[in-house]
Amino acid sequence: MSLSKKIKSLLFLSLFLFIFAFYILKQNTLHFFSKDKKVTAKCWNEINFKKTEKLLLESPIKSKIPFYEYYKQEQLSKGKTSQEIDKEYFYKDRRKKHYTKTNLFVLFYDNGLKAIFRVFHNSFSESLSKSISAYKISEFLNMKIVPPTLLREVDGKTGTVQLFVENILNLNYSSKYLKNLSLTQKNNLYLFLFLTGQYDVHYENILISKKCFLPVFVDHDKLSPEIQVQWGKIPFQYYPIKENYINFDKKYYESVPFEEAEILKNPSFEVLKKTFSGLSLYRINQLEKLINHDFKLESISYFKYKDAYFIQEPRSIYKHLLPSPTVKTYSKKTVKKLERMDEKILKDLVVGYLKQDQAFINGFLHRRDLFLKELKLKSDVNTIYIS
């Protein structure tokens, strides 16, 4: 064989190996494409979610470290001291240190992917599986505000793996970033909270991605059928007088007496104990801490219904997420998905992850109907659908 033919053969072989290597790499790594498929996109919610699910489940894991250690390394690299980091990270709850060292990890995949791994542990099991339902609902409704979340076993332990969205803005327990979200983003977040009945919303589970300034909603432990809320309002949290199971059927949701809500001023421990007779001292203590220490409120709104008290959530974050009373912007795809969603579709998304799955379905569909009714009433020039 002549020298020129050998060179051509080598060049052909090199080109083939390059194309083959590129193909393998493409199949095993995440690719961020813009909507026009031509340039690389920076927005986390534009990734191929189905492909990401496969990667989270099947890709080999190179290593893992406790989330606390990962967080501490990141902050030390920014010049903070260990004392400053601990004070900021555990400002509320010292138990958080133990949990984030034993049950919460960052996974590093061979292909460069990162994920948060939360280990199922006794009473935490149902709480963690709720995050899977939250992701499935968000994805079905085309909201893309919950990162891909699935069930996986890692080193003999079962838990949830959730795509690690990096470059998160430090909210520093401030509302300034939420105020700058677009109307569509705010409305999407509130609509998701409203439909899924979530009340444990704070600046550690609604995050903002630096790239494209997009919300990232994580930690859905309090997704439940118990919350009671009117469209466009702040929800009421459920405090049962008896620890019995309540039948959250369709009639239950249709008869909630929001109009009977009263204002309780100066809610000291003694006032709370007298007003909410029947609640355990443990719950009264929790309530008093939340009202007078965490949020320093001068009054609260509440009503009683079916062997339970409902107390309006004091978290100020809701005020920044309430939908605009005049301009309403919603995804046309989301609205169409909601219109065709029925009990069967919802069961496919939640059964197996929630103990009270039928109660959750009843509440979800009831609130869905309220939203669609509100949308129909306000369908005028101020209602904008984003395709």
- Major sheet characteristics: 5 strands, antiparallel
Q: Mean pLDDT score, rounded?
A: 81
Low-confidence runs of at least 5 consecutive residues: 20-41
Count of beta strands: 13
The amount of beta strand, in percent, is 15-25%
Compute the CA-based radius of gyration. 24 Å
Q: Helix content range of the residues, please? A: 40-55%
Which geometry do the CA atoms define?
globular
Distance between the termini: 61 Å
**Structure annotation, total helices:** 14
Derived from helix and strand composition plus strand pairing, the structural class reads alpha+beta
Order of strands across the biggest sheet? 1-2-3-5-4
Q: Write down the secondary-structure element order.
A: HHEHHHEEHEEHHEEEHEHHEEEHHHE
Word description of this protein:
By secondary structure, the chain is of the alpha+beta class. Among the domains are: 44-163, no CATH class; 236-312, no CATH class. Helix content is 41%, strand content 17%. It contains 14 helices and 13 strands. The chain has helices at 3-27, 49-58, 67-76, 82-89, 95-102, 124-140, 176-179, 183-196, 250-254, 269-275, 281-294, 332-340, 343-350, 357-377; strands at 61-66, 104-109, 114-119, 149-154, 157-163, 206-209, 214-217, 236-240, 262-265, 299-304, 308-312, 328-331, 383-386. The strands form four sheets. A five-stranded antiparallel beta sheet has the order 1-2-3-5-4, with helices on both faces. Helix 8 crosses helix 14 (357-377). The longest helix is centred in the N-terminal third of the chain and has 25 residues, at 3-27. The chain is globular. The chain starts with a helix and ends with a strand. Residues 20-41 have low confidence and may be disordered.
